[in-house]
Amino acid sequence: MTVKPFHLVLVLATAAAAVTAYNARRAAVPGATVPAEAVALHGAAELYGRLALYFGRQALRAEASYWKVVGHG
Q1: 18-58 pLDDT, tens per residue?
Q2: What residue spans define the domains of the chain?
Q3: In this structure, how many other beta carbons lie within 10 angstroms of the beta carbon of residue 17?
Q4: Residue 20 near residue 49, CB atoms below 8 Å
Q5: What is the pTM of this model?
Q6: Residue 28 dihedral angles phi and psi, to the nearest 5°
Q7: Among residues 11, 47, 42, 13, which one has the least CA distance to residue 25?
């Protein structure tokens, strides 16, 4: 059985979301009740921000490589 890259990314994204939600829950003031929606929103925003940075950097690297190959870099 081979693991497809999409499945690997999906598992990693799910794990990152769970860790982010757990950390957000731990960072809350002790004794305070944090609504699940707030934790989910915070976790999603953090995850999407990290993914945007990662894939943005990948896109910039790919474009720089392209321009080197074409001879304009």
Answers
A1: 887 777 777 767 777 878 788 778 888 888 888 899 999 99
A2: 5-70
A3: 16
A4: no
A5: 0.53
A6: -65, 155
A7: 42
